Amino acid sequence: MTGELDYSLPPAVRRISGNFRRFGWISFWAQLVLAIISSLVILFAIASGGAGSDNSTNVGTGGGLVLAMLGVAVVYGGAYWAFRYTRLARRLRSRDAAARPKPKDAMQALQTGLIVNLVGMLLTLLGAGAITGSLIGQSLRQQNVSGFNITQLVKPIDIFVVQANTNTLLAHFIGIVATLWLLRTISRA
Known about the structure:
The chain is mainly alpha-helical. The chain has one domain. The protein has five helices and no strands. The mean pLDDT is about 85. This is DUF3611 domain-containing protein. InterPro entries: DUF3611 (IPR022051). Pfam families: DUF3611. Keywords: Membrane, Transmembrane, Transmembrane helix.
């Protein structure tokens, strides 16, 4: 029955619907997996950061981590929005032409998805700057041998926070690329 439905659709609608479905799922799964990994690493960093260490020198505290967590939260929103692309693809394949979304509606959905991922990327980049600054401060304090304090060392968990932030940036980048590809698909129709 799907083949019969495909032949009743205009070729441009069929192509756009297929791209929305394909890139929506790719973006959804990539963002979801990267967001879960980043969430787990950040939660681990928070849990291990508060266990009897000097929190003033810990990357797991402060504004950088808050911005990184906000960036991860927005990735979940981007994944949800990518899932909406797959639902939009399903509506585009409707037999009833009146039930199909208008091109304006599809463009508005893509613009919203792009804004979500750009805001998330901005938050994550600001978090990356703050985290990197904190790590630089820790490494510079290590050079001061007279006042050496073991809690001022750069710890492996600090590098994991950087990796989690990088995963979050990658997730937002994937969402942006998928959305831009879909915008290109619609504009070529």
